Request: fold
Amino acid sequence: MIKTQFCRLLGIDYPIVQAGMAWLANAELAAAVSGAGGLGVVSPNAGMSLRGDAVKNLRAQIRRVRSLTDKPFGVSLFLTNTEVERLIEVVIEEGVRVVLTGGASPAASMKRFEEHDIRVVHLVGSVRHARGAEACGVDALIAEGLEGGGIRGYEEISTLVLAPQLRAAVEIPVVAAGGIVDARGLVAALALGADGVCMGTRFVATRECVAHQRYKEAIVRAIDTSTVLVRSNHSVFRMLKTEALRQWLKGAESGESLPWEEFASPKRLRAAYLEGDLAEGVAYAGASAGLIGEVMGAGELVGRIAQEADALIARLR
Ligand SMILES: Cc1cc2nc3c(=O)[nH]c(=O)nc-3n(C[C@H](O)[C@H](O)[C@H](O)COP(=O)(O)O)c2cc1C
Reply:
């Protein structure tokens, strides 16, 4: 498999990143991805109870990954999180080498990351944000295309057009995220000028992910129209059409639904993700869900994508 600049930057074998995913990016998943040569990532509240302590949980997740693999891995930090300062302290104390940052400008935290030789991979949804992040000194960018699951850039730019524009706008490596599940996606991303791919939805439907089996099965059953974009005042989200979301969308047309922020609460997200309650719960998922046909091992998935990408590139020559 081609070793890109991004692989060399982080010391990984394959340019495949497992996305940070609140509640879901657990140590076993991250270790399987990193162990297979990609970049596994843990999220502070992975697998946690609703009233759990994310700071403690993050420390435990980091130590658990280390007990399972000695390969590089990352920690996902949403910079608007009220606990972000304490989470950064844990990252530093535990000697983590890579963070995936998003949600706000990384400027205020860059000095501390630099002092501790931590590589910063920042999530952006537009050229303007990419230029701003590069000027702050981040090491690489993730292009958050509209197809992807979860919070998207409010400019609503698809991966296909965002990745090459970021490539042209900045010098640092750019990783494409959104709509990618397999070797075809990886080769397409490389062809667009990206240095690798970041996948979220595909990694939810793996054996190691802490997600409930019913949510994994809903992803496997999903078709092209199973996800929808929801626009709130400040953000755009791509969600799985669960029963609760369908009802909310119906009510929203006539102004009868709860405000989005109140409706899409941590409790409802956790209920779908970790308890498999797809009636009352809500869940992020990418349009890529329609391309996912089975739950499989995360390490096996990374290996398969790398191997098939090689074969595909050879065929295209
Ligand atoms: C279930 C789920 C939860 C996510 N949670 C987060 C998160 O907590 N922080 C974050 O930066 N991105 C999050 N994302 C977005 C991913 O970082 C990534 O952009 C996206 O998954 C890529 O598109 P894909 O789902 O088509 O692979 C989430 C995505 C999914 C599917």
Observations:
- The first helix runs from residue 5 to 10.
- The longest strand covers residues 73-78.
- The chain has a mean pLDDT of 97.
- Residues 19-22, 24, 43, 76, 78, 102, 123, 144, 147-150, 177-180, 198-202, 204, 284-286, 288 surround flavin mononucleotide (CB under 6 Å).
